[in-house]
């Protein structure tokens, strides 16, 4: 009963923040009303057969529109809401990077100290890596890999060892020399941190990030308290894939969250002291790390000029990324020279979970999209352009053009 009451009060509170007539300021200074935004989103999601979605928009670090669309559970006809716990997939990586910066602030981790020096023994001496890391530790280049490289996807590791022909970890290029997305690298850094902190990641992030920011619907592992409002996941034909349940924390992508919680995080990550109020009615500015840590997170570690983010090692070049200053910081993608100012972003891609969030820091304008459908990515471009006025995201590099999405499905 308490959980149901808390859910109702939160939903009513959120609804009160997005009243009919509330306007969204687009990036170019034009406006769209919340009713028009809702109608546009509903049409786009329906046209693209997206089962369910949560969407939030922030202006000046405040929620100006937040809503749920479609269903979180088709079998029982249960609606998606802004507080439905949804699999965030790789948005987890950006949140993990924020947690890492709390360790850096406490001088508990040095971003530039090699991983081999942060562990008590060789990586392949640990049971978790005994079968996969033998070739890696014998590679002379391994001694150069640092936490900064793992967070910025410049370590040289493949996305996952399971995708390698021999199912083992290898360095494909000199560490720090180029960008190649690697979830394996984030999970490796998680392992290092858990060895040093002697606590599981889910507990570390809960007490350091989720609880302080009051992210009540966010967890790195299955949380029974959220079971009454969790989004199931569906394929491109609307067929059930799976219930959302992660029993093991993975920095690369185990987090479940909700639009309201990511809005709180977005407010904190864009807060440099200019604003005196958080986005969900708090009386003081939301913050989680120092301004210097935000600068570290969102300073380019590597510039990107490839045509696509995936396949990971495709080196085909394009002018799309450089035209908007595409780069990677720590855990977050960056746009460093757009007509709307700099931005940071993170996508999340998994079976039946397609998500995206982007924040333009000049005026603290953000948009968050969480879906429980393999069709979610088809809606990103029209939603971001129509609601926020985002015309600068490198759609081709992201793989968010309709042609790119359909082509990728043919190769799966």
Number of helices: 14
**Assigned CATH class:** Alpha Beta
Provide the structure class: alpha+beta
> What count of structural domains?
1
* Secondary structure: number of strands: 15
Shape: globular
> What's the mean pLDDT score?
92
What CATH architecture label applies? 3-Layer(aba) Sandwich
- Classified in CATH, the superfamily is DD-peptidase/beta-lactamase superfamily
Q: Tell me the span between the first and last alpha carbons.
A: 44 Å
Largest sheet composition:
9 strands, antiparallel
Please specify the SSE layout and strand pairing.
Blueprint: H1 2-17, E1 23-25, E2 31-33, H2 34-47, E3 52-59, E4 62-73, E5 78-79, E6 86-87, H3 91-105, H4 115-118, H5 134-137, H6 147-151, H7 183-197, H8 201-210, E7 233-234, E8 240-242, E9 256-257, H9 259-269, H10 291-297, E10 302-303, H11 320-323, E11 326-328, E12 333-335, E13 343-350, E14 353-360, E15 365-371, H12 376-388, H13 395-398, H14 402-410
Antiparallel strand pairs: 1-2, 3-4, 3-15, 4-5, 6-9, 7-8, 10-11, 11-12, 12-13, 13-14, 14-15
Helix pairs in contact: 2-12, 3-8
């Amino acid at each position: 009963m308490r959980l149901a009451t808390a859910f109702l009060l939160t939903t009513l509170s959120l609804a009160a923040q997005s009243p009919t007539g509330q306007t969204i300021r687009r990036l170019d200074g034009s406006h769209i009303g919340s009713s028009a935004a809702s109608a546009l989103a509903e049409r786009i999601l329906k046209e693209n057969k997206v089962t369910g979605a949560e969407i939030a928009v922030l202006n000046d670090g405040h929620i100006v529109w937040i809503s749920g669309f479609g269903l979180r559970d088709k079998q029982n006809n249960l609606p998606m809401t802004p507080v439905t716990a949804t699999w965030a997939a790789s948005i987890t990586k950006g949140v993990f990077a924020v947690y890492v910066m709390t360790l850096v602030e406490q001088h508990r981790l040095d971003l530039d100290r090699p991983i081999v020096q942060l562990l008590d023994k060789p990586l392949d001496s640990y049971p978790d890596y005994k079968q996969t890391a033998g070739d890696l530790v014998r590679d002379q280049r391994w001694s150069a890999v640092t936490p900064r490289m793992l967070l910025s996807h410049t370590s040289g590791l493949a996305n996952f060892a399971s995708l390698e022909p021999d199912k083992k970890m290898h360095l494909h290029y000199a560490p720090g020399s180029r960008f190649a997305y690697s979830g394996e690298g984030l999970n490796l850094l998680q392992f290092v941190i858990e060895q040093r902190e002697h606590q599981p990641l889910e507990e570390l992030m809960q007490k350091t990030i989720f609880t302080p920011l009051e992210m009540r619907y966010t967890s790195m592992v299955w949380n029974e308290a959220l079971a009454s409002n969790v989004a199931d996941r569906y394929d491109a034909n609307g067929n059930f894939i799976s219930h959302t349940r992660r029993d093991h924390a993975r920095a690369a992508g185990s987090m479940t969250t909700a639009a309201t919680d990511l809005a709180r995080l977005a407010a904190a990550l864009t807060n440099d002291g200019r604003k005196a109020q958080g986005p969900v009615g708090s009386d003081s500015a939301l913050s989680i790390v120092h301004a210097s840590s935000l600068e570290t997170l969102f300073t380019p570690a590597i510039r990107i000029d490839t045509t696509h983010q995936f396949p990971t090692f495709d080196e085909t070049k394009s002018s799309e990324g450089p035209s908007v200053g595409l780069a990677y910081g720590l855990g977050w993608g960056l746009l460093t020279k757009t007509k709307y100012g700099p931005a940071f972003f993170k996508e999340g891609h998994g079976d039946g979970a397609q998500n995206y969030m982007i924040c333009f820091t000049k005026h603290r304008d953000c948009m968050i999209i969480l879906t429980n459908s393999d069709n979610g990515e088809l809606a990103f471009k029209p939603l971001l352009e129509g609601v926020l006025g985002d015309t600068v995201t490198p759609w081709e590099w992201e793989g968010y053009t309709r042609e790119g999405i359909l082509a990728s499905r043919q190769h799966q």
